Amino acid sequence: MGEAELQEGRCRGLDWAACASAYPGQRRSGDAFLVEGTATGSFVAVVDGLGHGDEAADVADAAMAALRETVERPPLEALTACHGALRGSRGAVMALAAIDAEHRVLSWLAVGNVEAAVVRREGRSGLTKRWSVPMRGGVVGARLPQVHASTVALTSGDVLVSATDGIAATCVDAVDPRVRTPELAQRLYAQYARADDDALVLVVRCSFG
Contact 75/42 with Cβ under 8 angstroms? Predict the structure, then answer.
């Protein structure tokens, strides 16, 4: 696998960390993420431009630009706008989520093989409960399926994990909400990143006031 880069930050009641790398030998990655504050909370996206190298990275950059323009809109509207912006390109797959901090509700959707799950620790037992984003096959910019956003009620301490297919989908089974956010991102990357693809895992922890 390529050399991993860790990024971390805070945004409107969230702390987040992302661990990512480009396909070995490539200068740029086709995997990208966005965590941005909105009027009601935060908007979170993970995007995977198809393939790897500069062309995939250009698609991811175009998707990020379109999504930054639509962070105040519901995920389905953001997806539709992004689909239009990517027409004529090789396309991308993605997971989008809007977090309403006041009402503590997440609205999300996914197109293609991008994993996303909310993980919650249950009491003091260490056991966890998990909700996975409903995914539909397709390619944003080329073949957009009929898709609807679904919702999950959130509590403080819930962890949203999103990953491209350069990270094994089983990574969500290993999420321990007790682990600090940057350490969790690094651990999931180290254990589940593939050696033959761009790879990105994003960990977002809710800490409502």
Answer: no
Q: Tell me, what's the pLDDT at 125?
A: 65
Q: Which domain holds residue 201?
A: 5-206
Q: Could you count the other beta carbons within 10 Å of the beta carbon of residue 30?
A: 30
Beta bridge partners of 15: 10, 205
Number of domains in the chain: 1
Stretch among 2-16, 84-98, 185-199 having the lowest mean pLDDT: 2-16
Cβ count near 195 (within 10 Å): 11
Cα–Cα distance, 135 to 115 (Å, whole number): 8
- In tens, the pLDDT along 23-61 reads 999 999 999 999 999 999 999 999 999 999 999 999 999
**What span, in angstroms and rounded, lies between the C-alpha atoms of 22 and 147?**
29
- Conformational region of residue 88, where left means phi above 0, alpha means psi within -120 to 50, and beta covers everything else: left
